[in-house]
Design goal:
The protein is α/β, with parallel strands linked by helices. 44% of the residues lie in helices and 14% in strands. The chain has 22 helices and 18 strands. The protein has an eight-stranded mixed sheet, with helices on both faces. Strand 16 and strand 17 form a beta hairpin. The longest helix has 20 residues. The radius of gyration is 28 Å and the shape is elongated. It starts with 13 loop residues before the first strand and ends in an 18-residue tail after the last helix. Belongs to the 3-hydroxyacyl-CoA dehydrogenase family.
């Protein structure tokens, strides 16, 4: 029979950590530095010794860097002892298990702990994929079992997910949450479902990236570069899978799929193939990439490493560029080309709109001068290279025409019909679409071989990425021309085929959509989800911050395109997003989206 909980606040001074691998050692370091007495338990005496040595080394580095004094280091190490038997946890107030992700192993640990610890001791599992409820249900004290999910490396990562089951007592959650705050972490309260918040969103994205690579849609290097440069992520998805461990990722996804039956969580076959071949990532020396040695972070060339840029087909000469459009993207692209020394014709539907777009560029250049990024002379020369025009007839002599008009297929098709008549033979015609089929623009011309996608990211002067989108009709020399132009304007080009979302949007928007579904299901709050992805996933913005910046109407349009293209039920836009758009709550631009904003 369970011992009833008292109203007295639970004190967590003595803590046992079971499992002294990388995560257990990191958690132990956090605890001893925060003044807790810790017993680290591992059945492998050699592993316990390695954990102690690793802790001694990491705290010594902290002293060298001025983060700890030698006295503080000595005190911290004195608070730690190691053991190889669970009986060492007998007087612990809290036990945190971080053993391998196996129900059988974890159940065994919990069963043994039931016979060892005091009735009031809290038992926490560090799982990121298994059911906390299932583990709690078999415990003698299910009300005292919860999840405590740290992120790797535990000393550096701020996020801790505090996972309640339907059986967990509120006092237990409160005690562990207070502990996380005292450790200098940012606790996020979540319910019991595979992956919780951060991994629940992150692993679906990683899985899609693996499937994209497996389909040979884009190279591993281009997929990773696209997500780093297009979304500001610290690592690309395939490099991150190698860091996490491909076998670990497969385990998490298996658990998520078993719960959700969402195809987005069904592990990509390549994850199984690599895992079963022992190619589990950095720890084995090879995964999606090849590494200098097992455990090394240094990538070395292998047969899949692409040849140096510039080899192969020769492109066409480009001296002048036409940019069609008068909005922010058009003016940003015109600025990029003019800064790189190209003569630019900036054409809009009227002379006034074109002049206004050039004036916007002048303002942007002035800001760069004020910030010391550009000299006044260079800014003036850049602006002089831009000729505004009220008609696309001004594109008669350009070598490259880039359209940046409304994201409407019929509007773009009409524009390409006009460019086909105006532009000289051999001119390259490019669309900046982010979601529409490039081939539809190409088929509107008599020269589809000259049409290609050049998807710049906003703001174009600052963002380094360009997705270069070939259709099945695009000529090799046109592709080579655009790659060379990207080098000249100092942008990083990634190659992808002509399908909805290309690389970035195809991976980004399902992740954003899944975040909305979490809120719909009352699983977690907007603030907790945003915090989880910033602190646990390394994202520069949380998903709801980003949705409000992008615009909910824009996001919904892209999600609808992805759903139509791939016919996957998991890609259907979340009803909450549709409702907000229908209500005119489009994000920052309207003052309200997922959050409210002060009117300017």
């Amino acid at each position: 029979m369970a011992t009833p909980l008292s109203d007295t606040p639970l004190s967590l001074k003595k803590i046992a950590v079971v499992g002294l691998g990388t995560m257990g050692t990191g958690i132990t370091e956090v605890l001893v530095q925060a003044g807790r007495e810790v017993v680290g338990i591992d059945v492998d005496e050699a592993q316990a010794a390695r954990a102690l040595a690793a802790l001694e080394a990491s705290t010594a580095r902290s002293v060298e860097r001025g983060r700890l004094t030698e006295a503080e280091r000595a005190d911290a190490l004195a608070r730690l002892r190691t053991a190889t038997d669970l009986t060492a946890a007998a007087d612990a107030d809290l036990v945190i298990e971080v053993v391998p992700e196996s129900y059988e192993i974890k159940h065994q640990i919990f069963r043994e702990l039931d016979g060892v610890v005091r009735p009031e001791t809290i038992l926490a599992t560090g799982t990121n994929a298994l059911s906390v409820t299932r583990l709690a249900a078999d415990s003698a004290r299910p009300e005292r079992v919860l999840g405590l999910h740290f992120f790797n490396p535990a000393p550096a990562m701020k996020l801790v997910e505090v996972v309640s089951s339907v059986l967990t007592a509120p006092q237990v959650v409160a005690a562990v949450t207070d502990l996380a705050l005292e450790l200098g972490k940012e606790p996020v309260a979540v319910g019991d479902r595979p992956g919780f918040v951060a991994d629940g969103l992150l692993f679906g994205y990683l899985n899609q990236a693996a499937a994209m690579y497996e389909a040979r849609y884009a190279s591993r290097e281009d997929i990773d570069a696209a997500m780093r440069l297009g979304c500001g992520l610290p690592m690309g998805p395939l490099a991150l899978l190698d860091l996490i461990g491909i076998d670990t990722a497969r385990t998490v996804l298996d658990a998520m799929y078993a719960e959700s039956r969402d195809r987005l969580h069904a592990p990509a076959p390549i994850l199984k193939q690599l895992s079963e071949a022992g190619l589990t990532g950095r720890k084995s020396g090879r995964g999606f990439y090849t590494y200098e040695a097992p455990g090394s972070a240094t990538v070395v060339p292998d047969p899949l490493t692409p040849a140096a840029d510039g080899a192969g087909v020769t492109g066409r000469e480009v001296r002048s560029v036409g940019v069609a459009g008068s909005g922010t993207m058009a003016s940003g692209i015109a600025e990029v080309f003019a800064k790189a020394g190209y003569d630019v014709v900036l054409a809009a539907r009227s002379e006034e709109k074109a002049e206004a777009a050039k004036a916007r560029i002048g303002t942007s250049l002035a800001r760069s001068v004020d910030k010391g990024r550009l000299t006044a002379e260079a800014a003036a020369q850049t602006l002089e290279r831009i000729t505004p025009a009220g008609s696309y007839d001004a594109f008669a002599d350009v070598d490259l025409a880039v359209e940046a008009v409304a994201e409407d297929l019929e509007v773009k098709r009409q524009l390409f019909q006009a460019l086909d008549k105006v532009c000289k033979p051999g001119a390259v015609l490019a669309t900046t679409t982010s979601s529409l089929p490039v081939v539809a623009c190409a088929r509107a011309t008599s020269r589809p071989q000259d049409v290609i996608g050049m998807h710049f990211f906003n703001p174009a002067p600052a963002m380094k990425l360009v997705e270069v989108v070939r259709t099945v009709l695009t000529a090799d020399e046109v592709h080579a021309t655009v790659r060379e132009v990207c080098r000249t304007v100092r942008k990083h080009a990634v190659d992808c085929g002509d399908r909805a979302g290309f690389i970035v949007n195809a991976l980004l928007f399902p992740y954003l959509n899944n975040a909305v579904k979490m809120v719909e299901e009352h699983y977690a709050t907007l603030d907790d989800i945003d915090a989880a992805m910033r602190l646990g996933g390394g994202y520069p913005m949380g998903p709801f911050e980003l949705l409000d910046v992008v615009g909910l109407d824009v996001s919904l349009a892209i999600e609808k395109v992805l759903h139509r293209e791939f016919r996957d039920p998991g890609l259907a836009p979340a009803p909450l997003l549709e409702h907000l758009v229908a209500a005119g709550c489009l994000g920052r631009k309207t003052g309200r989206g997922f959050r409210e904003y002060a009117r300017r």
